[in-house]
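I am still getting used to backbone structure tokens and would like to learn alongside you. To get us started, please write out a protein record for me. Once you have written the record down, we can walk along the chain together.
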Amino acid sequence: MFKQDVLPRWKGFNLMGMFTSKSPGHYNEEDFQLMSDWGFNFVRLPLTYHFWVENRDPHKIVESKLEALDQAVRWGEKYGIHVNIAFHRGPGYSVNPEFDEPFDLWKDQEAVDSFVEHWELFARRYKGEAYDKVSFNMLNEPFNVIPEVHGRVMRAATRAIHRIDPGRLCLIDGIAGGNYPAADLGDLARENCGQSCRGYIPAGVSHYRASWVDQDSRFPYPVWPGGLAGSEAWSLERLDRHYRAWAAAAQAFNMGVHCGEGGPNSTVPHEIAQRWLEDLLTILKSYNIGFALWNFTGGFGILDSSRKDVVYEDYKGHKLDRKMLNLLLRF
């Protein structure tokens, strides 16, 4: 059987402190403490660069605005949690349509230069942090870009980082929104780069009635296993084939792979969400691939998810989905 054996099998969550303009711009120590108490050891911090520039201008960087991120890194070290710093919005691209970018990362050299400049800033700022404590995730979910162009940008940025800090792990999201391995970048495994996959397959289950995806309610009521995508029903075997490709790439290139995002939205009926998530986690574990739910608190998370079909447990001022927590702890 194929195995990912380069990276630890990190398990944890994404935290939304600097995710969009609506985010608070800081993180909470309690989140790190709770994760640690439950035995989780990984947090991904999806960022928008607007938090450390003036007036959303990518050329006007203000380093002092990164102090909240520095604090998160310190809490990660305090509680034994690996911190993965991720550009959800980098200069020139975001999968989130919240803002228009002043240029296009896939078309404009100015955008590439800016993207590299921002990552060089992070490389210098976190140089000296232990390599097993902090890693980078280059850019969230690249869409509408051919591998050649995507690869050119990723090579430019990762090599700029490694000129400053050669040992820093850089995770590159797979193509088509992180769903498929970027085989053309497999050689970068020799340059301390891994890849990040997603745990949202099939979207008709994970994102059923999610407002930003299923806006016209085109997804039928979710069935798991079952449900059609084209002419083939989704099954445990088909889901396994999807992630087997990631494990095969990991083994072929001696490359680290981690599932940087995943999970079912709160709009998915809880029984179906649990059944699908259990199968997903079973498969990821079989290939030694770690995971991070899209969030800790909120619709994809175990705290304050506002599901309508869950009996929550009152826990330290939160509504805890104990059933989902127990499922995660099994893996």
